[in-house]
Target: Glycosyl transferase family 1 domain-containing protein
Amino acid sequence: MKIVHCVFSFGIGGAETMLIDILNEQSKTETVSLVIVNHVYLDFLLEQINPAVRIFKLRRQKGSYSPFPVLKLNWLLYQLNPDVIHVHSSALLRIIALRAGRGLFLTVHALHIPLEHAGRGTQLIAISEAVKADIQQRTGRMAMTIPNGIPMDKIEKRTRRASFVGKNMRIVQVSRLDVEKKGQDILIKAVALLKERGIENIEVDFIGEGRSEPRLRQLVQEYCVGNQINFLGLCDRQYIYSHLKEYDLMCHPARYEGFGLTVAEGIAAMLPVLVSDEGGPYEIIKYGELGYAFRMEDVTDCANQIEYIYNNYDKAMERAGSAYTYVAEQFSVRRMVADYIKAYQNP
Model:
């Protein structure tokens, strides 16, 4: 089967991380190509893709109204003559004229994605039941759900810790620094509240970069928790996979999130996880059965849950073990890619 994946850009994000895994796994059995429309891509990410995958860079300037990149894209698709065109940005659908033999597929990677350009001939794929419900509520259309997968074998596992006496409880949050979506401000305020309660041996590492970093750094100073909060900046996946095991808790306080790939990765490292009680991350922990959740936007409840985990860490690790088994069964890359192939074969 000839499969062409199309994206506007290829930068840091959960969708790109997932796509690297899809490309590498699909290329073992299929003929796979990647088309990047805009001149926005990171070479170190492209280097992680199997050389068997053909990569085409159209180098369109972002925001350009020139018709030539559009013509170039469609001519390339015509030449490749794929069985499947798999698009990872709904806006691309307004400039793709060709329809592949087995169909045109769009993976919806987040909540609230506009779908006005997704015609009835486009097969919609949601990365979680939360995204599927969002699509149906907004458009009345049905989507199939194919959850994201993670490479479990590449993530190093942590060992059990009995207590935090004389040690810091180390919390990690991995995502773009974007408070409107990812909610890092909630975690900072929760740490400050715990400090008021006398629990000061808590340390948080934010891994990622983004437009909210200055705002978050200012918040850290306002709440006097500068000695507890660290901004590590952008780290590649290899670094993250080898260092997650050094933490005691993953907290993902997102205000909205379609899936939450880093939550599954934290579970794969055998970390207890704490998420807000809506969206994809809450779905990953089976709505609180396999992890911990706090009420959306509620700083006090977030602090309460961290304190509970702090005081009952043995129980938290037992839950982490059950979560690991579940994630290994439900969110593997192999399972994800097999589901995509089935979707292509039965559009």
